[in-house]
């Protein structure tokens, strides 16, 4: 099956079980102070689960774009170095809001995997929560008993809080979960070591594919657990991993989710990607890692931009900029790409995913332009920064580089500190985080001082709300100042704000650019 067919079969299966199929929510979250990005399919349903929003459909299924690069769920370090973690990935999910619970959820998960997709039962393992007396959450006997109807007991693994109690973040909905893992190793390898021993052991071919969370609690800010008003099911299946299992390959990057992107990188760079089955050298492995990083990161960055998050210097925008700069540097160092090229992958992505996620098609041009600009701007300083870093390393005695130098790379050359840390790690070095932080705080204090302003009182010249907008009929008119105030700014000196009684100038707002023009006075002309 192609990846498109696999996604569709999941949605069709749950539609046949009376689930409403809904589109993915945006990957960028604007209205939840506890999260920057969607990190799980359930984020968009958080308020339903908490009982704050009404239940419109009690059964839902979808494929949700997720990003795990910050906070509780952060896979960034693994990406590219292994073959099954991603920054952005799709999570296939089915939900029950106060409707069915463990019996149906586990039965349907098993039915879909073994009867619809016909995955080999002999390669599947399941896990259930062993319980946590400290938090008064018991062993999940119910899930254990349900699984016994489908698999032999030696395939049921008891998992601890880390593996089998799923939480959205430090706060929010959570509950015990039951995972399904698949063993994709060869028969010879499986005969030697049981897959059971490799579950949750970071083996690249024995991986979790589906998590069934039984939402029963809300983790409160003080860390305590509170019972939810109703019980819900929240499941998440890693789409790219499922494609790996279905397409008989042993790396997510060998599925048709990634191969068209990899082919494009090969075409641009003239280099070859060697998959898991081919022999490799250490130099080829560096090329492979760089290609995996780039084809992974371009998806995260492109979809974030399509969802309205432009790269920037703060918050979520900086996370996106950091991911892109990481990809640019991998290309520069290991693929010898000295010109912008990542933007050229957006077309491939849009053709591949635009049918299911129309936003990547409709925003294709914007996404391409933004990535190209970002690449061009970082490439202008990257080489010089790398040279400085080499010099710093050469002058460092011991294995810890000074935090001030890492700050200089950040401030002058635009190197995110985690990128510098990554490059240093490749050379066997670390840097002094405390000194970096101290420099950052000093810089913040300097810019705060520079932007200090003292705002004077308004002086009222004409009383009442007399101001009118006349710009629908006129583009010039005679005006009076109705009020003004003085601003004393350390950065810009003395300024005045004035209010006019009748202005033809339309202000910036609602996506419109403000009008420009001039204000003529007896003493001179003011540009607006
Ligand atoms: N909410 C289920 C998961 O992310 O695994």
Name a few traits of the molecule:
globular, binds glycine, single chain, 16 helices, alpha+beta, nine-stranded mixed sheet, 38% helix, 528 residues, 22% strand, four-stranded antiparallel sheet
Task: Report what the structure shows.
This protein is α+β, with helices and mostly antiparallel strands and 528 residues long. The protein has helices spanning 3-16, 46-49, 102-116, 141-148, 161-164, 187-192, 239-246, 259-269, 282-306, 315-335, 345-353, 358-362, 364-395, 403-413, 417-426, 433-450, and strands at 20-21, 59-67, 69-70, 73-74, 88-97, 124-129, 156-159, 165-167, 172-183, 206-219, 225-238, 400-401, 430-431, 453-455, 459-460, 468-469, 481-489, 493-500, 502-503, 518-521, 524-527. Helix 3 runs parallel beside helix 4 (141-148), helix 8 runs antiparallel to helix 11 and helix 10 packs across helix 13 (364-395). Glycine binds at residues 40, 42, 166, 211, 213, 234, 236.
Shape descriptor: globular
Bound molecules: glycine
Report the total helices.
Answer: 16
- Give the rounded overall mean pLDDT: 93
What share of residues are in beta strands? Answer: 15-25%
Q: Show unreliable segments.
A: none
């Amino acid at each position: 099956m192609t990846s498109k067919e696999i996604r569709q079969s999941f949605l069709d299966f749950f539609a046949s079980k009376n689930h409403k199929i809904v589109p993915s929510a945006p990957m960028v979250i604007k209205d939840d102070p506890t999260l920057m990005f969607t990190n799980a399919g359930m984020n968009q349903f958080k308020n339903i689960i908490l009982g704050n929003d009404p239940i419109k459909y009690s059964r839902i299924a979808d494929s949700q774009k997720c990003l795990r690069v910050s906070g509780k769920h952060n896979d960034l370090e693994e990406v590219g170095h292994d073959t099954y973690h991603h920054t952005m990935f799709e999570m296939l999910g089915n939900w029950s809001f106060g409707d069915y619970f463990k019996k149906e959820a586990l039965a349907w998960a098993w039915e879909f995997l073994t009867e619809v997709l016909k995955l080999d039962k002999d390669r599947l393992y399941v896990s259930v929560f062993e319980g946590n007396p400290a938090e008064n959450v018991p062993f999940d006997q119910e899930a254990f008993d349900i699984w016994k109807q489908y698999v032999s007991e030696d395939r049921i693994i008891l998992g601890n809080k880390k593996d089998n109690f799923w939480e959205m973040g430090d706060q929010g909905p959570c509950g015990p979960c039951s995972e399904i893992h698949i063993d994709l190793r060869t028969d010879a390898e499986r005969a030697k070591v049981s897959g059971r021993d490799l579950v949750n052991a970071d083996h690249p071919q024995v991986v979790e594919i589906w998590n069934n969370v039984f939402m029963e609690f809300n983790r409160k800010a003080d860390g305590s657990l509170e019972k939810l008003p109703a019980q819900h099911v929240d499941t998440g299946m890693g789409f790219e991993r499922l494609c790996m299992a279905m397409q008989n390959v042993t790396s997510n990057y060998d599925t048709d989710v990634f191969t068209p992107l990899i082919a494009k990188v090969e075409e641009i760079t003239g280099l070859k990607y060697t998959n898991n089955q081919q022999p490799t050298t250490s130099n080829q492995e560096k090329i492979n890692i760089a290609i995996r990083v780039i084809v992974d990161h371009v998806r995260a960055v492109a979809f974030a931009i399509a969802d309205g998050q432009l790269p920037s210097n703060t918050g979520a925008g900086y996370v996106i900029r950091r991911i892109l700069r990481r990809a640019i540097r991998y290309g520069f160092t290991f693929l010898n790409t000295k010109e912008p090229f990542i933007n050229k992958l957006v077309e491939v992505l849009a053709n591949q995913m635009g049918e299911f996620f129309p936003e990547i098609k409709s925003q294709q041009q914007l996404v391409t332009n933004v990535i190209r600009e970002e690449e061009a701007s970082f490439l202008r300083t990257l080489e010089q920064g790398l040279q400085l870093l080499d010099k710093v390393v050469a002058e460092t005695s011991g294995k810890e580089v000074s935090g001030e130098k890492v700050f200089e790379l950040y401030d002058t050359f635009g190197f995110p500190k985690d990128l510098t840390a990554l490059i240093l790690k490749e050379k066997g070095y670390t840097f002094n985080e405390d000194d970096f932080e101290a420099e950052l705080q000093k810089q913040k204090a300097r810019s705060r001082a520079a932007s200090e302003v003292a705002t004077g009182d308004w002086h009222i010249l004409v009383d009442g709300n007399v101001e009118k907008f006349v710009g629908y009929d006129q583009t010039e008119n005679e005006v009076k100042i109705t009020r003004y105030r003085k601003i004393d700014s350390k950065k810009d000196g003395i300024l005045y704000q004035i209010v006019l009684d009748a202005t033809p100038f339309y202000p910036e707002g609602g996506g419109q650019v403000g009008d420009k023009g001039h204000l003529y006075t007896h003493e001179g002309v003011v540009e607006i």
